[in-house]
């Protein structure tokens, strides 16, 4: 079932358990008894969770933890969207996957759905193997109450932010690198949005990625767990309990802090939530990716041009693969691919004609 | 007076591994100027010209300096400046 699968919107694989939620039998709440004992949830909260719907964007490190917690908690519908396949180096932190999934070359969304249906057959899980972009995001969030960020790059986060503000749906940002991470709840119209707080993404090569700086599983799990806790508050209607600060955690430095960001909403003349310019949703921003026919290569081009510092990028990539550069371009060999990176952020990735794979590689090594 | 500036782990390659560095000054801007004089490589990570880069946020204690007085925000003994870069991974 690997290789060609694009979407499972209409044809879900595996067992009949996947459709158990449609049966007429009343769903027993016994499995949630410990959660319902908690006063913040109760039976009423549990019923709200069962009636709630979320879209999870990205099912890697953050995403697997989020999916795991939400499905176990009884969120009634979880759409899991991911463009990637499982690799051995994912297993260190991506809790829903195992060696068998790697051997089967399974898409992450499919493998996650497969195991989670064994965990909780009474909720609906919809895996979607797709690259989230401005053409499909509104469809992916059309019927949900909440959007969760399990992604690994700012390009798609700004797109999620645009789509969330545009539709008025809340979303929960989470980011993680090395031993530290950040969490922020975005309630359209109430709290600052991602662009209020992070005005622009780091230019390509300027910020570390998990591939260049590494990442610790406990840091990821804490960040995703904070996200999941906020999701439970929102989905059970406890808006008063929602954390409106930026949560900052570092498990190596022993730091757990909250930074006040709520006043940014009035202070910042945000292009997105104030002026309602949706540059990512309209496809004006973000990478412009094209397969280069017959060359087994894909071009990933940044539309917002920024000059790359090759010395800095080379230093970051050295140790991962062979790097050479001159003033015109930087060459980088890794995983059997050859990157040719230009000063404006554009890259040609040789060794694949798969646009989604190229975008993944770009996000991994050049970053955005 | 010397004010403590918290350096996040990805930027510590530019501060010889120091998690906290001390900077002299009466305002957030002066303290950061002093710190980036001591660690020049940090300058271009934090600043674009004389402005803080748009993907880096600076907090004085727990408040974003953008809703204080930005780099002109006065500092006092015991204050802490934190540099919080955008985090992409996940």
Set out the fold topology.
The complex is a heterodimer of chains A (368) and B (90).
Chain A lengths: L32 H5 L4 H9 L2 E5 L3 H13 L3 E6 L16 H5 L4 H12 L4 E6 L7 H5 L4 E4 L4 H14 L3 E7 L2 E7 L7 H4 L12 H4 L3 H19 L10 E5 L4 E5 L4 H4 L19 E6 L4 E6 L7 H8 L4 E4 L4 E5 L2 E5 L5 E4 L4 H11 L3
Parallel strand pairs in A: 1-2, 1-4, 2-3, 4-5
Antiparallel strand pairs in A: 5-6, 6-7, 7-8, 9-10, 10-14, 11-12, 12-13, 13-14
Chain B lengths: L1 E5 L13 E5 L3 H11 L1 H7 E2 L2 E2 L3 E5 L2 E2 L15 E6 L5
Parallel strand pairs in B: 1-7
Antiparallel strand pairs in B: 1-2, 3-4, 5-6, 5-7
Helix pairs in contact in B: 1-2
Overview of the molecule:
The complex is a heterodimer of chains A (368) and B (90). Chain A starts with 32 loop residues before the first helix and ends with a helix. In chain A, the strands form two sheets. In chain A, strands 3-2-1-4-5-6-7-8 form an eight-stranded mixed beta sheet, with helices on both faces. Chain A has a six-stranded antiparallel beta sheet with strand order 9-10-14-13-12-11, covered by helices on one side. Chain A contains 13 helices and 14 strands. Chain A has two domains: 252 residues, NAD(P)-binding Rossmann-like Domain (Rossmann fold); 79 residues, TATA-Binding Protein, CATH 3.30.310. The longest helix of chain A is centred in the middle third of the chain and has 19 residues. Chain A is globular, with a radius of gyration of 20 Å. By secondary structure, chain A is α/β, with parallel strands linked by helices. With 90 residues, chain B is of the alpha+beta class. Chain B has one domain: Beta-grasp domain (Ubiquitin-like (UB roll), Roll), CATH 3.10.20.30. Chain B is 20% helix and 30% strand. In chain B, the strands form two sheets. In chain B, strands 2-1-7-5-6 form a five-stranded mixed beta sheet, covered by helices on one side. Chain B has a two-stranded antiparallel sheet with strand order 3-4. In chain B, strand 3 and strand 4 form a beta hairpin. The longest helix of chain B is centred in the middle third of the chain and has 11 residues. The model of chain B has no long low-confidence stretch (mean pLDDT 94). The interface between A and B is large, with 52 and 21 residues.
